[in-house]
Amino acid sequence: MKRLIFALIILAAAIGGLFLWRQPAQQATAQASLLPLLTEEDSAGYARVTVPNAIEFPRDLGPHPDYQTEWWYYTG
């Protein structure tokens, strides 16, 4: 009886594996793009950073309303 149960489990696993193996690969339907982030349409009216700026304290500790995004990070 144990051999029959074992054989049925092996057969079920083999059939299940064959079923999964025979399925065609699904094609990706969604794509991500960073291009909209680089366009100037959304950033109209904001200053752009094109060259490095010298940091001037304490003025640079506060907000920078001329720029669309504040990006500060600390590593230490």
Protein architecture, described:
With 76 residues, the chain is mainly α. It is 33% helix and 0% strand. It contains two helices and no strands. The model has no long low-confidence stretch (mean pLDDT 82).
Architecture blueprint of SSEs:
Blueprint: H1 2-22, H2 35-38
Give a summary of the structure in a few sentences.
With 76 residues, the protein is mainly alpha-helical. Helix content is 33%, strand content 0%.
Q: Tell me the overall shape.
A: elongated
- Uncertain spans: none
Kindly name the structural category.
mainly alpha
Distance between the termini: 66 Å
Q: Compute the gyration radius: what is it?
A: 30 Å
Count of distinct strands: 0
The SSE string, one letter per element, is HH
- Let me know the largest β-sheet: none
**Overall pLDDT:** 82
How many helical stretches? 2
Q: Helix amount, in percent?
A: 25-40%
Percentage of residues in strands: under 5%
Descriptive key words:
76 residues; mainly alpha; 2 helices
